[in-house]
């Protein structure tokens, strides 16, 4: 612990070194809390400086991620979780997490190298799959898919009224005044710079459901354009609990198998519990991506 603190706060290497001025003036009962906040700001600054080093790299996924993540670097604490994480039981919250973590790589085409179906292409060569038919070759990144691609930007058009109402509700500038760069940050749940700290709870409550619904609509639309290019993982069942109403294909059992009439009792899953012997001879099936 001492080593970690000294890394964040080098002055602590000398026990006789005085504490920062604002901590020294704090009430004795509040000194620990004040020092904790000081360490949080130090961690945030160090993490930001580490990320900013990637701006000198060639264009790529890491630099693009940092570009979106640090758009409000002077107001945001890197120590705190992203606002869309803190909404309780928001519909389609898993959809929003998926598009932000590049899980559904078929939606944003610059993510497709994660499928490992072909040799890894350079970032600049990961073109939009919808535009070559129109004689256009352009990078299939977030800003293109959300705002510019003729085949996918209509999803944003369907949500214009909702985002305009959100801007009015939170006293933001008109949604139509946002640049494509700003729109691409806002619709996945990033807090725009005009939102004050005191209004952050309002943003979390009002914006997260709309952004999640947009992410779900975008995924469903792109899936309809390329129904055989989808590579979903085995956590699709979890999407149902987050409010998704997708119709997934049923699991086809191998010959000779049939589902259990009832799920196993809790004691059956406890290691070394005698009730577990009742599960001998049974199998657990795993739904593999694209194969069912």
Characterization of this structure:
It is a single chain. The protein is mostly helical and 292 residues long. It folds into 2 domains: 1-56, no CATH class; 81-251, no CATH class. The protein contains 11 helices and no strands. It has helices at residues 2-8, 21-24, 31-52, 61-69, 93-100, 142-148, 153-158, 160-169, 180-186, 200-225, 236-241. Helix 6 packs across helix 9 (180-186). The longest helix is centred in the C-terminal third of the chain and has 26 residues, at 200-225. The chain starts with a helix and ends in a 51-residue tail after the last helix. The model is unreliable at 228-248 (pLDDT under 50).
Question: How is this fold's topology laid out?
Answer:
Layout: H1 2-8, H2 21-24, H3 31-52, H4 61-69, H5 93-100, H6 142-148, H7 153-158, H8 160-169, H9 180-186, H10 200-225, H11 236-241
Helix pairs in contact: 5-10, 6-9
Helix-strand pattern: HHHHHHHHHHH
Strand proportion: under 5%
Give the averaged pLDDT, no decimals. Answer: 77
Specify the helix fraction band: 25-40%
The number of helices is 11
Radius of gyration: 24 Å
The major sheet is characterized as: none
The number of distinct β-strands equals 0
- Give the count of structural domains: 2
> What's the N-to-C terminus distance?
47 Å
Q: Which structural class is indicated by helix and strand composition?
A: mainly alpha
Low-confidence stretches: 228-248
Apparent shape = extended
């Amino acid at each position: 612990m001492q080593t970690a603190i000294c890394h964040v706060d080098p002055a602590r290497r000398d026990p006789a070194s005085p504490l920062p001025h604002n901590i020294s003036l704090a009430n004795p009962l509040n000194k620990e809390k004040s020092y904790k906040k000081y360490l949080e700001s130090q961690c945030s600054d160090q993490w930001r400086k580490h990320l900013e080093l990637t701006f000198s790299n060639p264009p790529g996924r890491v630099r693009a991620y940092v570009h979106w993540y640090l758009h409000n670097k002077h107001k945001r604490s890197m120590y705190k979780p992203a606002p869309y994480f803190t909404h309780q039981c928001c519909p389609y919250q898993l959809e929003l997490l998926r598009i932000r973590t590049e899980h559904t790589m078929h939606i944003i085409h610059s993510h497709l190298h994660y499928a490992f179906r072909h040799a890894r292409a350079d970032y600049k060569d990961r073109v939009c799959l919808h535009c070559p038919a129109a004689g256009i070759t352009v990078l299939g990144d977030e800003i293109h898919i959300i705002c510019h691609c003729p085949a996918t930007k209509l999803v944003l058009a369907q949500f214009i009224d909702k985002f305009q109402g959100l801007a009015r509700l939170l006293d933001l500038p008109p949604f139509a005044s946002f640049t494509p760069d700003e729109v691409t940050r806002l619709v996945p749940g990033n807090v725009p710079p005009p939102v004050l700290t005191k209004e952050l709870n309002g943003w979390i409550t009002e914006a997260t459901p709309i952004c999640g619904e947009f992410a779900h609509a975008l995924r469903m639309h792109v899936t309809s354009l390329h129904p055989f290019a989808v590579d979903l993982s085995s956590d699709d069942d979890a999407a149902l609990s987050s409010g998704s109403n997708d119709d997934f294909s049923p699991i086809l059992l191998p010959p000779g198998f049939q589902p259990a009439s009832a799920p196993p009792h809790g004691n059956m899953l406890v290691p070394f519990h005698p009730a577990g012997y009742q599960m001998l001879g049974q199998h657990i099936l795993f739904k593999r991506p694209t194969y069912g």
